[in-house]
Design goal:
- This protein is an alpha/beta fold.
- Helix content is 31%, strand content 24%.
- It has eleven helices and 14 strands.
- A seven-stranded mixed β-sheet has the order 2-3-1-4-7-6-5. It has a seven-stranded mixed β-sheet with strand order 10-9-8-11-12-14-13, with helices on one face.
- Strand 2 and strand 3 form a beta hairpin.
- Helix 6 packs parallel to helix 8.
- The longest helix has 20 residues.
- Bound molecules: S-adenosylmethionine (SAM).
- S-adenosylmethionine binds next to helix 6.
Length: 388
């Protein structure tokens, strides 16, 4: 079996969550850097990482890395990589995205065109042909330069992994599915604990939580670009991976997951998305303003992203956050986790967070405010948990 170095980009600030996920899948991590985790795996790992990782953005096969301060060095470095190991004679290939940080070369379009030319030159020599029809399978390439070190990866994912396939109906400012999953994973919430999102919008937090509770792999209902690359991972491996994912699903698990929102159209989207994800039976959605937030039980979790000023008509953020603070104060023994870019969260909540963590929501700086409640008393273990 061939060993690959696989690169999984993720949201800045959430590398540790992704690292743990990769560890749990059983792969050896070789490097953790800002916004990406590199690990080692075979062709099965390409499939399993795409299907099972909740917090990665995509999975790249590292084709190579080299230093380049000039376009000539970029050309030579690119032409020196063994593209023929991945791209067949009729393959369609292009540099899908180029990113550059603290490097001499920074123009994405120039980097893209120089690298494409270098790839063509390499393949011309290897395949002994002058012209490529490029009418076969697609091989998108991604490249990033950091301090003049060029890292080149072949994109096995295609459409970003945050697209699970369930969000057909959107609202304004939805949170990315992989970011929502990572934020849930940063809390001690488990399937048997209560979870409420009082600003649920299109339902991302409740749906991601329900998928975790049901052990439902995030990528089991979508396609990936490497599914067509029989020479990298054959159809059988994809089939086995998807079978493994299907066998793991347990929709009978009991949950108390709720999503509230003041906007009926957001709730319609949330219900439809939950249905498409196959977890609608596990979530209760209801129209309710945050000033009516309540729950009869103890030790629950609020995990949410409230409005943070993305719309002009939501200018009254102080009273919204104050209402959340007041309702939260009435929820005895609850914890609250909230991502927001609004700068007066703690002032208006009238309570300082116990912990606070900087996270990038795309390019926007946000903080993950954590108000940590007490742990519930230990619950008696079910026989299955004892034997396992
Ligand atoms: C940033 S969006 C949440 C997006 C959501 N996480 C998603 O992925 O779609 C904030 C949501 O808060 C809702 N909202 C605004 N004011 C509210 C209020 N007073 N009570 C409850 N929900 C409210 C909006 O309708 C909007 O759907």
């Amino acid at each position: 079996m061939k060993k690959y170095e696989l690169i999984a980009p993720c949201h800045f600030g959430l590398e540790a969550v992704l690292k743990k996920e990769i560890d749990d899948l059983g792969y050896d991590i070789s490097k953790v850097e800002d916004g990406r985790v590199t690990f080692l795996g075979d062709e099965e790992a390409v499939c399993r990482a795409n299907v099972f990782l909740r917090t990665a953005e995509r999975i790249l096969i590292k084709v190579g890395s080299f230093r380049a301060e000039t376009f000539e060095e970029l050309f030579q470095g690119t032409a020196g990589l063994a593209w023929e190991e991945y791209i067949p004679r009729d393959g369609k290939f292009w540099i899908k995205k180029a990113g550059s940080v603290k490097s001499k070369l920074f123009s994405p379009s120039d980097i893209q065109s120089v690298m494409k030319k270098a790839m063509v030159e390499r393949l011309k020599k290897v395949y002994r042909q002058e012209w490529f029809a490029e009418d076969g399978q697609s091989f998108p390439v991604r490249v990033f330069l950091l301090k003049d070190e060029v890292t080149v990866g072949l994109d096995t994912t295609g459409e970003s992994l945050h697209k699970r396939g369930y969000r057909k109906m959107s609202v304004q400012a939805p949170i990315a599915e992989n970011l929502a999953a990572a934020l849930i994973m940063l809390t001690p919430w488990k399937a048997h604990r209560i979870l409420v999102d009082p600003f649920c919008g299109s339902g991302t937090f409740p749906i991601e939580a329900a998928m975790m509770a049901a052990n439902m792999a995030p990528g089991m209902n979508r396609e990936f670009s490497a599914m067509e690359w029989g020479h990298v991972a054959g159809k059988r491996i994809w089939y086995d991976t998807l079978e493994e994912a299907r066998e793991m699903v347990d929709l009978t698990v009991e949950t108390d997951i709720q999503g509230f929102d003041i906007d009926e159209s957001a709730l319609a989207a949330a219900r439809e998305n939950a249905r498409l994800a196959g977890v609608d039976s596990m979530i209760h959605f209801q129209r309710r303003g945050v000033d009516m937030l309540s729950h009869g039980k103890k030790y629950g979790f609020i995990i949410t992203n409230p409005p943070y000023g993305e719309r002009l008509e939501e200018a009254d953020l102080p009273s919204l956050y104050t209402a959340l603070g007041e309702r939260f104060a009435l929820l005895d023994s609850w914890s609250l986790y909230m991502i927001s870019s609004y700068e007066h969260v703690e002032r208006d909540m009238r309570r300082k967070a116990d912990k606070n963590r900087k996270i990038y929501n795309g390019m926007m700086k946000a903080y993950y405010y954590q108000y940590i409640g007490p742990k519930p008393p230990a619950r008696p273990k079910r026989p299955a948990e004892e034997s396992g």
